[in-house]
C-alpha cells in the first residue's frame, strides 16, 4: 500500500468512452485527458480484429510485439492479442499526438505495459471475451479490469480464496441475490489496483480489500481499517450491458501533464534542425506512410 496524501485529488473520472473502430470518439478521449487527467475507453474485439493476420501493416503496428504475436498458436488468443495492442497504441497515439506505429510498448517484470521513452502517460490494459479495455492517466498510476457481470464467482466459492475477513463479513451481511454482483465488483477493483501498482496477481488478494456495500471504494486492510488515503480514486462502471469495469487511479500530487504531445519532450532547437535537414519532402512522406498504416 502507498503513503497517504492529505490534499484533495484532482477531478474525478469520466465515463468509459466507446471506441468503434479507428474513427471512433477520439475527441472525447482527448477531452477526458484534459479535464480529468484520465481517460478510459472500451471497444469490441470485432471492431479491432485485423483483416490480414500476417500483413505488413499489422507488423508495423505491433512493432516489438510482432515476434510474440507469431509465437502464439491459438487463433483466438492471437487475434485478441493483436487487437488489444493495436487499440492500446491508437489510444496512446491520441495522448502523444503521434502516429500509432510510432508508439512502442514495453513490459515490466510482471507484464505491466508501459510506453517506451515516455513516462508522462501511464497505461493499463484488460480484456475479457470480446471486450477490450484501455486506461490512460497523466497524473499518476492507472489500472483497469473488466469481467462479465454474471460471472459466477460467488457460487463457485471463490470468495473464500480471494477475500479478506472483513470482505467475507460484508458479503455475508448482503442478501444472497446481491453477493455475486458485489464479489465481481470487489474482484475487478482488486485487479485494477494490483495492476496499477505493478503487482498483478503477485499481490495476494487476501492481503487487501474493498467495501462491498455500495460505499465509495477505497483500499482496506484485512480487518477493514483504511489502507489508502485520498491519493487513490476508484470507480466501477457497467459497460455494454453485460460487463463490470473498475478503474484505479493514483494522484501523485504534482499535477497532471496537460500537454502530452511527444514533441514537447524534445528540445525545439533540435527539432528545428532535424526538420530543416530532412526537408518538406520527408515530412510529406511520413504523412503518407501514416495514412497507409492506419488502413490496416
From TrEMBL:
GO biological process, one term: lysine biosynthetic process via aminoadipic acid
EC number(s) reported in the record: 2.7.8.-
GO molecular function, one term: holo-[acyl-carrier-protein] synthase activity
InterPro entries assigned to the protein according to its UniProt record, in alphabetical order: 4-PPantetheinyl_Trfase_dom (IPR008278), 4-PPantetheinyl_Trfase_dom_sf (IPR037143), P-Pant_transferase_sf (IPR050559)
UniProt cross-references to Pfam families, sorted A to Z: ACPS (PF01648)
Residues of the 4'-phosphopantetheinyl transferase domain: 142-247
Gene Ontology annotations for the cellular component aspect, listed alphabetically: cytosol
Top-rank taxon: Bacteria
Keyword Transferase: yes
Record's keyword terms, sorted: Transferase
Protein family per UniProt: Belongs to the P-Pant transferase superfamily. Gsp/Sfp/HetI/AcpT family.
Name by which UniProt lists this protein: 4'-phosphopantetheinyl transferase
Amino acid at each position: 500500500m502507498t503513503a497517504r496524501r492529505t490534499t484533495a485529488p484532482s477531478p474525478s473520472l469520466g465515463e468509459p468512452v466507446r471506441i468503434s473502430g479507428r474513427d471512433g470518439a477520439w475527441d472525447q478521449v482527448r477531452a477526458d485527458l484534459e479535464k480529468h487527467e484520465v481517460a478510459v475507453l472500451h471497444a469490441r474485439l470485432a471492431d479491432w480484429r485485423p483483416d490480414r493476420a500476417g500483413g505488413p501493416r499489422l507488423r508495423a503496428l505491433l512493432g516489438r510485439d510482432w515476434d510474440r504475436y507469431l509465437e502464439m498458436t491459438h487463433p483466438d488468443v492471437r487475434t485478441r492479442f493483436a487487437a488489444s495492442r493495436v487499440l492500446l497504441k491508437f489510444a496512446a497515439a491520441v495522448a502523444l499526438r503521434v502516429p500509432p506505429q510510432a508508439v512502442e510498448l514495453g513490459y515490466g517484470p510482471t507484464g505491466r505495459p508501459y510506453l517506451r521513452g515516455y513516462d508522462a502517460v501511464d497505461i493499463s490494459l484488460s480484456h475479457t471475451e470480446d471486450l477490450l479495455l484501455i486506461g490512460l492517466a497523466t497524473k499518476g498510476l492507472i489500472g483497469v479490469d473488466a469481467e462479465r457481470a454474471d460471472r459466477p464467482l460467488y457460487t463457485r466459492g471463490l470468495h473464500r480464496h480471494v477475500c479478506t475477513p472483513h470482505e467475507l463479513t460484508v458479503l455475508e451481511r448482503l442478501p444472497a441475490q446481491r453477493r455475486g454482483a458485489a464479489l465481481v465488483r470487489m474482484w475487478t477493483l482488486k485487479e485494477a489496483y494490483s495492476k496499477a501498482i505493478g503487482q498483478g496477481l503477485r499481490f495476494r488478494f487476501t492481503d487487501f480489500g474493498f467495501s462491498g456495500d455500495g460505499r465509495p471504494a477505497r483500499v482496506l486492510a484485512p480487518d477493514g481499517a483504511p489502507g489508502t488515503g485520498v491519493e487513490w480514486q476508484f470507480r466501477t462502471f457497467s459497460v455494454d450491458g453485460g460487463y463490470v469495469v473498475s478503474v484505479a487511479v493514483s494522484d501523485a500530487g504534482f499535477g497532471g501533464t496537460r500537454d502530452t504531445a511527444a514533441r514537447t519532450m524534445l528540445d525545439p532547437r533540435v527539432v528545428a534542425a532535424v526538420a530543416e535537414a530532412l526537408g518538406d519532402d520527408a515530412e510529406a512522406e511520413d504523412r503518407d506512410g501514416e495514412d497507409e498504416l492506419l488502413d490496416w
